[in-house]
Amino acid sequence: MAASVHETVLIGVCDGVIDKKKYTSYCTNKIGDKPDLLPVITLQHPTCSLCQRGLSHVVQVYCPLAASPYHRTISVFACTYPHCSGKSESWIVLRSQCLEDDIKASQDDKTTPCTESAMSRTDWCDEADDWGMDDEEQVAENGVQITNDCIGEGNDVSSRLQDLCIDGDHHQSALPPNDVPVFQPFYISVMEETDLNGFHDTDHENELLRAYEEREGVTVEEIQSCGSGGATQEEYEKATAKHGDEVFTSFMKKISLCPEQVLRYSWAGSPLFISEAVSDVSQTVPVCAHCGSPRVFEFQLMPALVSLLRSVDTDSDVSLEFGTVLVYTCRNSCWKSGSAAPVEEFVVVQPDPDQKLFK
Length: 359
Hints:
This protein has helices at residues 100-109, 136-142, 157-160, 202-216, 220-226, 233-241, 246-255, and strands at 10-17, 30-31, 45-46, 56-62, 70-78, 91-99, 172-173, 186-192, 261-265, 295-301, 324-330, 343-350. It is α+β, with helices and mostly antiparallel strands. Strands 1-8-2-4-5-6-12-11-10-9 form a 10-stranded antiparallel β-barrel. The protein has a two-stranded antiparallel ribbon with strand order 3-7. The radius of gyration is 20 Å and the shape is globular. The two termini are 25 Å apart.
């Protein structure tokens, strides 16, 4: 499904290693590490529904609603056990929320790393209020914003990022087992996809196309010629589709604008599917188990993330394999006042149709 002309897509990229000496908090966008806890949330470590092993923290995203009083954090966990890796059932997405008053109360009790000077609740981008929404009343209830104050610009990003925190819902144990792998921590920096114009990585695109050529028996020149010389997008898709999966070809072409992207965010927008076989998944997403509202697409993890997911234990060869991971959340972002447990959302893991193509 192609993104609509009104859809804002945000791109997350790795922005450096998180220094162990620096604080991270619930308002940090990050890869790996341990989840950071919102003040009112009780930490419950999630476990795999397939093998009951503890799940490793993959990413954490601070994404409060545009006109909501709640701070809002989403964390993604996955099982690294080889027999479970790549299966949707071995992943868990947890949404955690709390009020500003709860933050202030916790700051009265102790010093917290996420202060107003370091982090204010503003949008990842100015257009956040318009993401997938048609009227301002809906935005007030459901519009999403992802903070950019923790992101920064250029090389100053890492020094300005703060940490996040999260917890578990179903399939949890009180404390994380000691043998649960912890992935190396990295900051995530964010930009609008429209800002990628002029940063087209043609070398990497050609590398992907050559891999596609070997797999499908079509020349790179033939594919590229369909995308130039006045050829339309429809002609391009038709020319490449005869050699393989049209959706996959479109996926490769889209991410070639920024091959290093680890996350795509578009609340109530359209995901970028990696395979035609699973491109109708949006039709089967269940409603919210807590309030019955429909779930909407929020963000997805991208192939470039795979190569970054390595254990902090240098002697470990733990890793995850996936093509893309789609996250769907409650449209109303329902939350029970005073709740201390995160809400489990819906996740779909789509495998890489051409193993290790994006590594």
